[in-house]
Write a structure and sequence with these properties.
The chain has 6 helices and no strands. It is mostly helical. It has one domain.
């Protein structure tokens, strides 16, 4: 049987191609999420050390850096939070970043669900960024969601 290419079937054998822009976005997201996950796992592993250092700073132990009033207030808030709630917060952040990474992986594989997962998880994260006053991260997150959306036509 002869394999002829007609206008109707010429694209059936082609594998969909990821745009270079989408490739760059995915790589940047893999790097950022990997770095944040690494830092979160370190925070989880060294939470006891973090709380010990924070208590030493609040107590004014010799050899500890001098801090401003607002920095001391932030340290006191961390201590008041307690190690269990701190570790729970880190665990939630790990789940959020891993879910976002899943969305990026699916977009890497050119699946539309990846965008939906990424946009939803990072949209929820925007709420936290707005409450905490991290407006730079709000701008970055909105920019990435918009850039991924501009590549939505490549997703199947």
């Amino acid at each position: 049987m002869e394999n002829t290419i007609t206008p109707e079937n010429q694209f059936e054998n082609e594998t969909p191609q990821r745009s270079q822009f989408l490739t760059v976005l995915c790589i940047l997201s893999f790097i950022w999420s990997g770095f944040i996950l690494f830092c979160l796992f370190l925070g989880l592993c060294f939470s006891g050390f973090i709380f010990g250092a924070a208590e030493s700073i609040i107590a004014g132990t010799e050899g500890m850096p001098a801090m401003s009033e607002s920095q001391l207030k932030a340290m006191q808030t961390l201590i008041d939070l307690g190690p269990q709630k701190f570790m729970m917060g880190i665990a939630v952040a790990i789940i959020i970043y891993m879910t976002s990474l899943l969305g990026v992986f699916k977009m890497w594989r050119l699946q539309k669900w990846g965008f939906y997962i990424y946009a939803t998880v990072n949209g929820v994260g925007l709420t936290y960024d707005l409450i905490s006053g991290s407006y730079f991260m709000v701008a970055i997150t909105i920019a990435f969601i918009g850039m991924y959306f501009s590549n939505f036509k490549y997703l199947k």
